[in-house]
Write a structure and sequence with these properties.
The chain has 273 residues and is an alpha/beta fold. The chain has 12 helices and 7 strands. It has helices at 21-31, 42-45, 50-57, 69-83, 98-101, 111-134, 160-184, 199-202, 207-217, 225-236, 261-266, 269-272, and strands spanning 9-13, 35-39, 60-61, 87-92, 138-148, 187-193, 247-250. A 7-stranded parallel beta sheet has the order 3-2-1-4-5-6-7, with helices on both faces. The protein starts with 8 loop residues before the first strand and ends with a helix. The structure holds nicotinamide-adenine-dinucleotide. Residues 13-14, 16, 20-22, 40-41, 44, 65-67, 93-96, 120, 147-149, 193, 195-196, 198-201 line the site of nicotinamide-adenine-dinucleotide. Belongs to the short-chain dehydrogenases/reductases (SDR) family. FabI subfamily.
Length: 273
Amino acid sequence: MYNLLKGKTGIISGALDKNSIAWKVAEKAHAEGAKFVLTNAPIAMRMGEINALAEATGSQIVPADATSVEELTNLFTQSQEILGGKIDFVLHSIGMSVNIRKKIPYTELNYDYFNKGIDVSAMSLHKMLSVAKKLDAINEWGSVVALTYMAAQRTYPFYTDMADIKAMLESIARSFGYHYGLEKKVRINTVSQSPTKTTAGTGIKGFGDFYDFANAIAPLGNADAESCADYCITLFSDLTRMVTMQNLFHDGGYSSTGVSDDVMHRLGVENNS
Ligand SMILES: NC(=O)c1ccc[n+]([C@@H]2O[C@H](COP(=O)([O-])OP(=O)(O)OC[C@H]3O[C@@H](n4cnc5c(N)ncnc54)[C@H](O)[C@@H]3O)[C@@H](O)[C@H]2O)c1
């Protein structure tokens, strides 16, 4: 451990169970000396697993539906009370698409579900940032990280509406990053993570095959949730204080690789040439 977050405070959303990326971020942030509040949608709390994480990291839990400005206002207000002042970092680790859950093809999307997905998974970042800025709840040089996926840049058919939603999420990070950076020196970045075996990840049709495909392309293999958490910690730390408004790939080199020898071999290309 490096004490990278010693003296820092934050809010970590999205820890549903021990597979969640946010769960690993919370464990690492604790190990690096941070104090933080855990949050999730009230409905996710009922599963109760988050209590174990709160106990292990000495954290309090403040439930908030990330689509509710009122509940987010309560989250940032209460967090400052609990943590004794302004906070230094926020993790947005929230994603949900009813269209994906119901396996509705992209060309036949249900627009009520699409709107819901946008609200939960992208607009929630804007709402969090807007609430935080209004309350002046984040310290100068504070850092906000939201998790995203490369379908924002390239087409992955099974990712359906989440592709468009992640593009919006990344855009909000840039747009808000400008204003928040200029006025309060708060940094906002997105981390574009490899396919990861979590509740949200494995809910996607064909996830298992796709996971193997990405793993066969990336020279380092797929990045797991734990290494994603390590990367998030560096972004919360002062070592990355001039990094903002970026979409940062954390994917073992996948996004820069056209094709790998492994995939060519599996396609039997060597035999044909
Ligand atoms: N798993 C992957 O393959 C993968 C890849 C790239 C990016 N991501 C992103 O990482 C983030 C975290 O997902 P994960 O893979 O850890 O899965 P996860 O299912 O463990 O986490 C998703 C979280 O979103 C929360 N959530 C849903 N609706 C909410 C609401 N209205 N208000 C507040 N919270 C709400 C859920 O309760 C859950 O804790 C998501 O943004 C996801 O899109 C995941």
